[in-house]
Amino acid sequence: MAEKLRYTDEELEEFRVIIEEKLALAKRDYDQMMSALMNKDSNDVDDTSPTYKALEEGSATQSKEEIISLAARQQKFIQGLKAALVRIENKTYGIDRITGKLIPKERLKAVPHATLSVESKLAGKK
Predict the structure, then answer these.
(1) Calpha distance 27→124 (Å, rounded)
(2) In this structure, how many other beta carbons lie within 10 angstroms of the beta carbon of residue 57?
(3) Bridge partners, residue 102, by sequence
(4) Measured distance CA(42)–CA(40) in Å, rounded
(5) Contact indicator for 112, 84 with CB cutoff of 8 Å
(6) Which uninterrupted H or E stretch holds 91?
(7) Mutual orientation of helices 54-89 and 9-37 as an angle, nearest 10°?
(8) DSSP, residue by residue, 56-79
(9) In this predicted structure, what is the pLDDT of residue 50?
(10) CA–CA separation, 91 and 114 (whole Å)
(11) Distance between CA atoms of 118 and 110, rounded to whole angstroms?
(12) Separation of alpha carbons 16 and 112, rounded Å
């Protein structure tokens, strides 16, 4: 039997559903992070509190820096998922960009935006 070169339309549709679900969750999480950064849900008195809270302000700054880092990572994840949807449209989804072989379904279900098989990824780290 010849080696399969691409996933069927039905398989691609299964992946599309998985990706769209993950994308919706990722966008929700990103929006929550941005809301936290902008203190939208806060009833704090940060703008009226005395300046003697220097330690708390330092802690708040560190927390904001961590949220910014997480938000940037989340945004990159969202872009990867969107790119995966484009590859589904082009019927190139699930094809290892180095070897041209199919990435195993198990990997794509775990990491739906993957463009490399585990083997290719490990080979690139050497």
Answers:
(1) 30
(2) 13
(3) 95
(4) 6
(5) yes
(6) none
(7) 160
(8) HHHHHHHHHHHHHHHHHHHHHHHH
(9) 52
(10) 15
(11) 12
(12) 9
In terms of pLDDT, which residue wins out, 102 or 124?
Answer: 102
Q: Copy the structure tokens of residue 125.
A: 């780290």
Segment 51-59 mean pLDDT = 55
Are 25 and 104 within 8 A, CB to CB?
A: no
Q: Are 98 and 114 in contact (CB under 8 A)?
A: no
Token pair 């929550």 is at which residue? 32
**DSSP letters along 17-38, please?**
HHHHHHHHHHHHHHHHHHHHHT
Closest to 68 in 3D by CA, of 46, 40, 36, 41: 36
Element (H, E) at 54: helix 54-89
Question: Scanning the structure block, which residue is given the tokens 């449209």?
Answer: 89
- Structural tokens at position 124: 């690139």
- The CA distances from residue 60 to 2, 42, 113, in Å, are 59, 13, 33
Average pLDDT over residues 62-77: 91
